[in-house]
Amino acid sequence: MSIISKDIQKAIALLSNEELVAIPTETVYGLAGNIFSEKAIKSIFETKKRPFFNPLIVHLSSVDELETIVSEVPEKARILANAFWPGSLTLVLKKQKNIPNIITAGKDTVAVRVPNHPVTLELLRKLPFPLAAPSANPFNQISPTKPEHVERYFKNELKLVLDGGSCKNGIESTIIGFENGEPIIYRLGALALEDIEAVVGKVAVKNKKEENPDAPGMLDKHYSPSTFTVLTSDITSEIKKYPTKKIGVLAYNSSFTSDEIFTEIILSKTSNLHEAASKLYDSLHELDHLNLDIIIAEKLPEIGLGKSMNDRLQRAAFNN
Ligand code: AMP
Ligand code: MG
Fold first, then answer.
1. Which end of the chain is more exposed for a tag (fewer CB within 10 A), N or C?
2. Taking CA 103 as the corner, what is the angle to CA 100 and CA 108, rounded to the nearest 5 degrees?
3. 218 pocket-lining for ligand 1 (C-beta < 6 Å)
4. Where are the domains of the chain?
5. Cα(261) to centroid(ligand 2), Å
6. Domain 4-205: which topology?
7. Is the distance from the beta carbon of residue 135 to the nearest atom of ligand 1 less than 6 Å?
8. How remote is the CA of residue 105 from the centroid of ligand 1, in Å?
9. Which residue out of 145, 187, 191, 221 has the highest number of ligand 1 atoms within 8 Å of its CB and is therefore the one to mutate?
10. Closest ligand to residue 223's CA
11. Half-sphere exposure of 216 (CA within 13 A, CB side)
12. What is the pLDDT of residues 252-270, one digit of tens each?
């Protein structure tokens, strides 16, 4: 029997009983638990096989709850929260004392956002506690953007994937921390850098683990298919390097169909970066289930969401 269902009452019952539920958001599906239940939070790490140094994002139903979770809100954090919540922006701020260390990997900051999905907003409004929710995939694997992706990963571990359809944005939230009151991007994501800068001015990006010990979990290899994956700006030359292999191509806006490739997915024939982002992980899931020898992914234009997608694809293709 499928664990996918729209039964929000069942989600409330499970979460109130310190159990986990996969929830829809506009970015990717999350593996959610009560932030104040040690049992639930431990079970998130165990289910995902996620290392404890990798902190979780707290999900709230409204910006009005922010002060129950964080102790300081710099002016630019307030401006960003008002501009983009509910939405795909996570803020890393000084935590309140009652936020358990296991959620923050022992740090004195906590990551928090208000997701923009009607089902999960309703769920959060009905629950008397916020939800911690990392992406609902085993550690390092491709994030889920459809309920079926989660079911495939966790049908034996979970009782419920709350069905909210396909994730509209399809890529994780953009994470922003603060140094001396100034915003710093820790992770590029579903909210484009340009949109953020339009509101608070120029923002530094520190999304490599070498340059930012403050953002644990920025791993070189992440978001990975099990199939060997390469990222290139020149698909045609890359295909020629693997004459005997079963190749799947992930292209941006145009076709490379030839006898040398087994299959191809085009992310957006109209060169729409939003459409491309919404299809990115679903396409990787699809290619990863075709028993290919190699996935050749095309680098996206380095603007807007293209930057965020290139970040994910670089980590997917790292060190194979
Ligand atoms: P995920 O939930 O899989 O989207 O990953 C959440 C990411 O948020 C982690 O890998 C961290 O990089 C980041 N994060 C969460 N909490 C903090 C924090 N307190 N300080 C810095 N980064 C954080
Ligand atoms: Mg993740």
1. N
2. 70
3. yes
4. 4-205, 229-316
5. 30
6. DHBP synthase (3.90.870)
7. yes
8. 9
9. 187
10. 2
11. 17
12. 999 998 888 999 999 999 9
